[in-house]
């Protein structure tokens, strides 16, 4: 909750802070924030690797939350000490629009970007480990393990959503009433309190031992398979597929995994030949379980890869929809909602859906699909992707109307002036649709990756989701740059689709582009989901495992 509060608090406020205080253009500010979002999620692969290989999830969380807190403290100092900010004395709104305000010095931007990216790096140990560490607290041999796990991931994402709601409301309110330093300081205080609470709970936790470097095991399988690439499954020199005797796997913290026929080329890493001897090198002969780990990691890749598009759309909404809201009337009766609080609405829709999920959605979907939990994990991911396409399609339709209205009523060059007769609450439709998309897709993906990932690679599995989010953020920056360079021509004074002046740009074309890309991505997901086979219903605990006898004869 505290990490997402900081994540979203920075994502909506940092663009405005860089524009109004550091005097940076909207485009460079949004790209810097997109990079922060990308680092926050893509670095999760490192955190997942360290947790599974060496530190365990507990110590990984402990170390990286401390780094996160240090970054937030540095951002707070930047917003409170004048030495880190350019002169604000002669900078009014007109000067901002014309770009005549004194810009931040290079060293000031270097400091801000450094502490911002340190904060993003701190998420490396939080994103992949917190959900997995929470799920580790349940006994996989328990009678209601799957239902408890299902409810845990929903409760986990509910906590994440509450953190986002607080960021979009309370933190924005603090910023408006008490300034930027207090707003960023409140994020640091929340993270500090969460760290304290996490450490207080230390005696209660159930730990899963790190199983050694997963990357080393993957490399050993690839090297061994390459060395034996010419070996035949029917060779007279073949002893069998190698596995250690007994119930336990050779991998610490993991049960044995039954052999499958997928990726037969990798099985050659487990081919035990007479020439291998009694004590073969792990770089020449691997166990069946080790080979199956690699197969599982490969088979999982297409599913989170298909969620990159959803994360790209979510990233675009954090900046583009705020630019839309600046031109609209945000009054709700006598209450004026700050523009930076507009993204709270998808969070509220997520909160509502998660609250009603088991009482409304599960019974409804159970009647349609016949699935005991309403919908399978992949079905939920697919539902989410479909709703994301509807969201950007509506955004394109409304943006065409908004731009036409602005030009017809003389607001073409007043892109920071709200139009009193056009309500910002038309944005609620796209916000609610993307909220539905997020809750179905992300929660389903997290549960899918945790259950399907190998025992000793649960954090790596969870990191897949965060990596997809990070790639989505970076892809958003790349897509923005491509669209600006292709559609804009400064020599001919031709504005790009993503012009800083939203009324002279063509945001609706950009939204239609996202719609087309989303539809193509959805087709790719349907293909991948139909081909995917869930892992067999087995108990993969340390004590209760499926035993593969040593020297199992290979099938030709």
From TrEMBL:
<comment type="similarity">
    <text>Belongs to the major facilitator superfamily. Proton-dependent oligopeptide transporter (POT/PTR) (TC 2.A.17) family.</text>
</comment>
<feature type="transmembrane region" description="Helical">
    <location>
        <begin position="155"/>
        <end position="174"/>
    </location>
</feature>
<dbReference type="GO" id="GO:0022857">
    <property type="term" value="F:transmembrane transporter activity"/>
</dbReference>
<dbReference type="Pfam" id="PF00854">
    <property type="entry name" value="PTR2"/>
</dbReference>
<dbReference type="InterPro" id="IPR000109">
    <property type="entry name" value="POT_fam"/>
</dbReference>
<feature type="transmembrane region" description="Helical">
    <location>
        <begin position="462"/>
        <end position="483"/>
    </location>
</feature>
<feature type="transmembrane region" description="Helical">
    <location>
        <begin position="180"/>
        <end position="200"/>
    </location>
</feature>
<keyword id="KW-0472">Membrane</keyword>
<feature type="transmembrane region" description="Helical">
    <location>
        <begin position="61"/>
        <end position="84"/>
    </location>
</feature>
<feature type="transmembrane region" description="Helical">
    <location>
        <begin position="35"/>
        <end position="55"/>
    </location>
</feature>
<dbReference type="InterPro" id="IPR018456">
    <property type="entry name" value="PTR2_symporter_CS"/>
</dbReference>
<dbReference type="GO" id="GO:0016020">
    <property type="term" value="C:membrane"/>
</dbReference>
<protein>
    <submittedName>
        <fullName>Protein NRT1/ PTR FAMILY 6.1 isoform X2</fullName>
    </submittedName>
</protein>
<feature type="transmembrane region" description="Helical">
    <location>
        <begin position="340"/>
        <end position="360"/>
    </location>
</feature>
<feature type="transmembrane region" description="Helical">
    <location>
        <begin position="509"/>
        <end position="529"/>
    </location>
</feature>
<dbReference type="GO" id="GO:0006857">
    <property type="term" value="P:oligopeptide transport"/>
</dbReference>
<dbReference type="InterPro" id="IPR036259">
    <property type="entry name" value="MFS_trans_sf"/>
</dbReference>
<feature type="transmembrane region" description="Helical">
    <location>
        <begin position="300"/>
        <end position="320"/>
    </location>
</feature>
<feature type="transmembrane region" description="Helical">
    <location>
        <begin position="381"/>
        <end position="398"/>
    </location>
</feature>
<keyword id="KW-1133">Transmembrane helix</keyword>
<keyword id="KW-0812">Transmembrane</keyword>
<feature type="transmembrane region" description="Helical">
    <location>
        <begin position="6"/>
        <end position="23"/>
    </location>
</feature>
<feature type="transmembrane region" description="Helical">
    <location>
        <begin position="424"/>
        <end position="450"/>
    </location>
</feature>
